[in-house]
Amino acid sequence: MQNNTNTKTGTYLVGLMDILGQKNLLNKIERLQVNQNYNELEESFKRIIDFRTVFVELFEQVRKINTDFLNNNNITPLNSHDIHTQSFSDTVITFMQLDLSDTAQVPCLGIFCSFLIAAYSFLNNLAQGFPIRGGIDIGLCLENKTNETYEIYGPALSRSYELESKIAQYPRILIGDNLLKYLTKKNNITKNDNSSKLQKNFASECLKCLREDCDGNKQIDYLGSHIKQSLGKEILDNNNFTTMLKNAYNIVDDTVIKFQQNDDKLYYRYKILKKYFDDSRPNYIELLAK
Questions:
Q1: How far apart are CA 52 and CA 69, in angstroms?
Q2: What DSSP string runs through the chain?
């Protein structure tokens, strides 16, 4: 079978998210009896597949919400850039080209969708006991498409990996300096054409999805009031979301207690996470009370 390969370069948004604890889990599985470790390995892999599936399904749901917004305001064919995914084991990479020549594109909408997906995916995995650490930034990259498979390579991916693996240190999704500069610039647009106004609007939406953590880094404010509002009534009214939210709170509390007894470093890091959860509780008080 002949491969159809296309390669292009440009400025890309790249997000990298990694499910924590998989190395220890796989080591534990390897020590089990043969029949047991087969079953445990299958269950572990199923969780990875579920992580990827939820990510894709939520993206389509979020994109539909924002496409409806565009259609209702008679500003089609202004659309977001396409977002592609690349997976390897327990890591998911998302990427989107920002500098397409078509002036009708609105990359800040794609960035906004990426933020909402990252927020929901974070909570969903944490609620199942599999916390995520991630990084998102922009920069030069090469995109390669072989048949229907996409992959990305370049400095933006390297920076996202560095944010995830070296800077984040505990479950959170950090935002790189280049992306912050990009959103700030788009938020300061003064032109009045529809495309520019949409860029400015969605850049503002993106910036409202972020918060400064205690170490000065910007992170996705996944429990913040703006992301709650942006996820929409359809998602928030779903009983599965309420269960997911409660489970996430319980797991953070339980993890802090566990690490307090046997791991000072992780105890300190998860105390920071717990403080964020506690500070954000008023945003979801009505759901947590159900």
A1: 26
A2: ----EEEEEEEEEEEEEEETTHHHHHHHHHTS-HHHHHHHHHHHHHHHHHHHHHHHHHHHHHHHHHHHHHHHTT-TT-BPPP-EEEEETTEEEEEEE---S-TTB-HHHHHHHHHHHHHHHHHHHHHTT--EEEEEEEEEEEEEEETTEEEEESHHHHHHHHIIIII--SS-EEE-HHHHHHHHHHHT----SHHHHHHHHHHHHHHHTEEE-TTS-EEE-TTSHHHHHHH-HHHHTSHHHHHHHHHHHHHHHHHHHHHHHH-HHHHHHHHHHHHHHHHHGGGGHHHHT-
Tokens of 38: 């087969």
Is pLDDT larger for residue 224 or for residue 197? Answer: 224
Percent of the chain residues past pLDDT 70, beyond the cut: 81
Cis peptide before 131 (omega within 30 of 0): no
Q: Encode pLDDT of 140-149 as tens digits.
A: 999 998 877 8
| Half-sphere exposure in the Cβ direction for 224 (13 Å, CA) | 19
Q: Which of 95, 78, 108, 59 lies closest to 206 in space, CA to CA?
A: 108
What is the reported pTM? Answer: 0.87
The number of CA neighbours under 13 Å toward the Cβ of 265 is 2
Grade residue 4 by pLDDT with cuts at 50, 70 and 90: low
Instruction: Record the tokens describing residue 187, joined without a space.
Output: 């938020």
pLDDT tens sequence across 93-112: 889 888 866 555 678 888 88
The yes-or-no verdict on residue 16 having pLDDT over 60 is yes
pLDDT, tens digit, 9 for 90 and up, residues 145-182: 887 788 899 999 999 999 999 999 999 999 999 999 99
